[in-house]
Amino acid sequence: MQQLHSDLWVVDSPLRFGGIEVGARMTVVRLPDSQLLLHSPIAATADLVREVTALGPVAYLVAPNRLHHLFIGDWKQACPDAAVYVAPGLDTKRADLAIAGVLTDEPEPGWKGTLDQVLLAGFPFASEVVFFHRPSATLIATDLAFNIGSSSPLLTRLAFRLIGTNGRLAPTLLERILVRDRPAFRQSLERILEWPFDRVVVAHGEVSEKGGREDLVRGYSWVLGKVRDV
Ligand SMILES: [Fe+2]
Fold it and tell me: How many angstroms separate the alpha carbon of residue 207 from the centre of ligand 1?
């Protein structure tokens, strides 16, 4: 586990998608009451469960978009007291899970004050909920952008270059097709850009410690318009 702040960690694991190693990252947030929220859980190996629960009891398991839900069930088994919150659409897709709630634009009482959140409107393919961790000024995103840089395998870098990322934090060309309602999506993005974040955590690629805001604005200029202060 990599500690980014006194109450924020990330853990990476290998994950292949369509034959390409894209990796996956889970973010662990420790709340003021010492309970943990696991964002986009990765495989619940015995070692990882031990390491995570040593930080505090797991209270919340969050599947932040329609694609990042594979390991929620395993974590729920390992931590039966944890409440499962999922992105819209997963409540029907994963009816097998004991779901406590569907994520909205409003933080749940359990993490309100520590995490803010925005549901990306107009993007039904992912229905992603993006979080802002106030104590560390960190944006916690999932597939909003990818940061496939020099630490990724060559094949991964080539594949992501083909779909339009540039070695920095950026969305792919697919978002241009998958965003169905640009004005609604733009409104969500603008709410996100109001948060005073520096660091950006994404699920695939490296954590962006600096310049993430500028990279997001550049990558989404086709939604936001060309001229914009950051
Ligand atoms: Fe993803």
Answer: 14
